[in-house]
Amino acid sequence: MRSQVSSDRPTAPKDVSYFTYTQVVRDRKVSVKEFFELVESSARIGCWSEFDKIQITILKLSDVAKIFYSSNPELQNADTSWENFKAKFLEI
Fold first, then answer.
1. Could you tell me the CA-to-CA distances from 87 to 44, 74, 91 in Å, in that order?
2. Could you tell me which residue, 12 or 47, shows the higher pLDDT?
3. For residues 39 and 53, is the Cβ–Cβ distance under 8 A?
4. Is the pLDDT of residue 10 over 70?
5. Residue 56 CB contacts under 8 Å (≥ 6 apart), including other chains
6. DSSP string of the chain?
């Protein structure tokens, strides 16, 4: 069983309940900057990795942001860092 655990992914417990905290974005209009601040705040509390932040952000994308993500192969690259991912969205 232990051999199946990937060495590049931490096994520390993560609290993904803060995922719902980012629902605020859907309930009211927030800026892209504020959205990323919400994700980062939730990530600190929930012990999310960079990978987790990117994946949760992708799940929360809608409308123009989802189209932007889908049309940008660089954002879909598994090697993209959180800072680069976030910077691309802050540029638009």
1. 19, 12, 6
2. 47
3. yes
4. no
5. 16, 19, 22, 39, 42, 48
6. -GGGS-TTS--S---GGGGGGGGHHHHS---HHHHHHHHHHHHHHHT--HHHHHHHHHHH--HHHHHHHHT-HHHH-TT--HHHHHHHHHH-
- CA dist 11 and 25 (Å) reads 29
User: Higher model confidence: residue 75 or residue 18?
Assistant: 75
For residue 80, is it left (φ>0), alpha (ψ between -120 and 50) or beta? beta
Look-up: residue for tokens 């096994």?
A: 11
Distance CA 88, CA 92 (A): 7
pLDDT band at 2 (very low <50, low <70, confident <90, very high): very low
